[in-house]
Amino acid sequence: MDLDESSLLDAVLATLDGTPDPRLKEILTTVGRHLHAAVRELRLTNREWEQAVEFLTAVGHTSDATRQEFVLLSDVLGVSMLVETINGAHAGTESTVLGPFHMVDSPARELGDSVNLIGKGQPCVITGSVRDVDGTPLSGATVDIWQCDENGFYDVQQPESQPPGNGRGLFHADDEGRFWFRTVVPSHYPIPTDGPVGALLAATRRHPYRPAHVHVIAEAPGHVPLTTHMFVADSPYLDSDAVFAVRGNLVTEFAEVTEPAEAEQYGVSVPFRHAHFDIQLARA
Ligand code: BEZ
Ligand code: FE
């Protein structure tokens, strides 16, 4: 029997009837419907379909254990942030994307330690707290942070000039839920553009930049783990993040401090930059 444009979709959906997992059936049915609708609406040519397959093949070939081009594609299409938004709709500090530069084992550090293992650059002190949504301090909460350097590079991108663990630290909040550490102010930076996602950005005349930020994962027993960023308030690209991950209330002042007594308190010299970030975790 000949299939036309719409009976073809019905035939495909009928093949899913015996799927035992109802969620898998629902996902494949919805994706199938939208995919067919897009192809019909676009009147896609054979050459365009081949180009789509070539593009996705290149995305796969560019992915390996240390690089995930499919995640990057999801990021620049806004899908990562959409999934984050759907699943992060609970009380407490807002979440944002994880990104590809997190190491599962950030080096454990003491409160007050510096994550700037190179020692150059204007000092920056980051202080903050981790609390329950009712304001109760979460003593011993873990705060995992990672950031790029003042030139916009993560340690893993420059193994020849940055020691492993530069810009990274796993801290334990004190009895009052407070944490603090020394670092440098991160720079804005481009997401990787040397693969097919970079080609897609170029073809659509999009810039690849992310505004300056410090990544944070905060966790405490009985609470929902939070993956988020502190965005540097005076950074370029806050209004046009290549991965759509900025949330206004995560934008944090990194104020310049010239008061020597304050510098002494944190073991830095003036002038230094100071940012403060209070985190609230939702109950699990
Ligand atoms: C990051 O912030 O590390 C990042 C997030 C998404 C894509 C690329 C980089
Ligand atoms: Fe980042």
Explain this structure to me?
This protein is α+β, with helices and mostly antiparallel strands and 284 residues long. It folds into two domains: 5-65; 79-281, Protocatechuate 3,4-Dioxygenase, subunit A. Helices cover 28% and strands 21% of the residues. It has seven helices and eleven strands. It has helices at 5-14, 22-42, 46-62, 69-76, 79-87, 196-203, 260-266, and strands at residues 124-132, 142-147, 168-172, 178-183, 189-190, 209-210, 213-219, 226-232, 251-252, 255-257, 272-281. The strands form three sheets. The chain has a five-stranded mixed beta sheet with strand order 3-2-7-8-9, with no helix packed on it. A hairpin with a 6-residue loop joins strand 7 (213-219) and strand 8. Helix 1 runs antiparallel to helix 2 (22-42). The longest helix has 21 residues, at 22-42. It is elongated. The protein starts with a helix and ends with a strand. 27% of the residues are buried. The model has no long low-confidence stretch (mean pLDDT 95).
